Amino acid sequence: MALRHKLFQILHPILTNRCTYSIRHFCYKASPFVEDLDKLNTKYEVSKDPEEWKYVERALPLTIIPEPVAKETYPSGWKPQTNEVKNRPYFIERTKNHMIPVYLDISQRGVRRHTLIKRIQGDINLFEKELVKFLQKESFQPIRSQVNEFAGYIRINGDFVNATKYFLEKKNL
Amino acid sequence: MSNTTEKALSLLRYLPRVCLANIRDNPGAKKKSRRGRAQHGGDYHGAGNKGSNQRQNFMRIGYETGNNPFYLRFPHEPYYKGHHLKRQYPPLSLLDLQKLIDTNRIDTSRPIDLVTILNTGLYKLFPDQHHFGVQLTDEGADIFAAKINLEVQWASEQVIAAVEKAGGVITTAYYDPHSLQAMVNTKSFFERGIPIPRRMMPPPDAIEYYSNPGNRGYLSDPEKISEERLVLAQKYGYTLPKLDSRILEMLNETKDPRQIFYGLHPGWVVNLKDKVILKPLEEELKEFYAL
């Protein structure tokens, strides 16, 4: 950028002599760059103190989402995913934020409510069978559900988000 | 007779009937009119011909040609007058905060301020939309159990009680929009290479809130705050836990009312590339950025 500006400064008088060429003062490109100005005379001190830099690092955000640490109790009710995932017919992976991937999908101007369970691995049909059996106790009407084996999600008609989360937490998933 | 006519007549013999459905005009019998431009063949689009309808010179909304208009006919109380100018404090519940702590998104071994909450990426703040910081709400006050040094911008009495009952410390502090803009995305702020701004004092209508020890305001007397802690404990009926001696240093860590980031003085320029801090030496600048 600085080079281009210098080029502009050199070429400008030549161009102005030849043809009618004007500086566009309204354009930001017309103003000089900071590096082209005279040397800064403001006195300043450069500090490389690691103790001070610690405070800078404290203010900066983490670049990755931290892994949850094992604690005795979790007062908020959130539970980490169990490590015993072997010998299970199905498995539901947590999201990047370590939450259960169960969502409420509201559409048709708030009329249609679907429960969406994502990230299902393994025997999705068995999971659907067990889940519907569990949810059926709370529902008067037969539960309608749709299994998408390829994408690994289940769509259930109605709002069963909390019940599904409870079911999964009970299964330690 | 020509071959074509013969063909046509022979076809006629086999056709069950000649009717309007199976005859058509002779070619060139109909002359097409001009092709009008635009959607409906270049007509007036429902606006008609001549007058105020064609010119679309409508009256302003609510105007009733000289009558006392309906919207002015009855007296009213302007409940929401000036709502667009008021300071907004987007909420974060104690349950949310506890969940952030449980999922290791917030480090409790350090004081928690707005920068910490914003750095989780799970709480959004828009200073240009008159957002002035976080409001801690009382949802989950019963389960809250974290010994933290917390700084928020607005907190109710119940929230203060919940934090102090758990053995923590809470402060309410004001940040002006320029400071907030620096806090929203600290990395991009440091990359801009501009000095850390000096935090402004709260506006006249907020001074009272932030200098009230009952609200744990950052401008109030610390001795009066410790008095108020006892008063609140008696009001809500819990014994005020003694501050944990192992984390006492963290619990006592405070920011200057002119400071935005812990440990960083206003006027400093942070260079992330070379990992150095530039500090002004000019007397004028020192005075401008004084704490």
Q: How far apart are the first and last residues' alpha carbons of chain B, in Å?
A: 113 Å
User: Main sheet of chain B?
Assistant: 3 strands, parallel
Structural class by SSE content of chain B: alpha/beta
Strand content of chain B: 5-15%
Global Rg of chain A: 31 Å
- Enumerate the strands of the largest sheet of chain A in spatial order, edge to edge or round the barrel: 3-4-7-6
Order of helices and strands of chain B: HHHEHHEEEHEHHHHHEEH
From the helix content, strand content and strand pairing of chain A, which structural class follows? alpha+beta
Query: Level of helix content of chain A?
Result: 25-40%
Describe the fold and architecture.
The complex is a heterodimer of chains A (173) and B (291). Chain A is of the alpha+beta class. Among the domains of chain A are: 1-38, no CATH class; 90-170, Translation Initiation Factor Eif1 (2-Layer Sandwich), CATH 3.30.780.10. In chain A, 29% of the residues lie in helices and 18% in strands. Chain A contains four helices and seven strands. Chain A has a four-stranded antiparallel sheet, covered by helices on one side. A two-stranded antiparallel sheet of chain A has the order 2-5. The mean pLDDT of chain B is 93. Chain B is built from twelve helices and seven strands. Chain B is elongated. With 291 residues, chain B is an alpha/beta fold. In chain B, strands 1-2-4 form a three-stranded parallel sheet. In chain B, strands 3-5 form a two-stranded parallel ribbon. Chain B has a two-stranded antiparallel ribbon with strand order 6-7. Chain B has a domain at 87-288. Chains A and B meet through strand 1 and helix 2 of A and helix 4, helix 5, helix 8 and strand 7 of B. Chain B: Residues 91-171 form the Large ribosomal subunit protein uL15/eL18 domain. Chain B: Pfam families: Ribosomal_L27A.
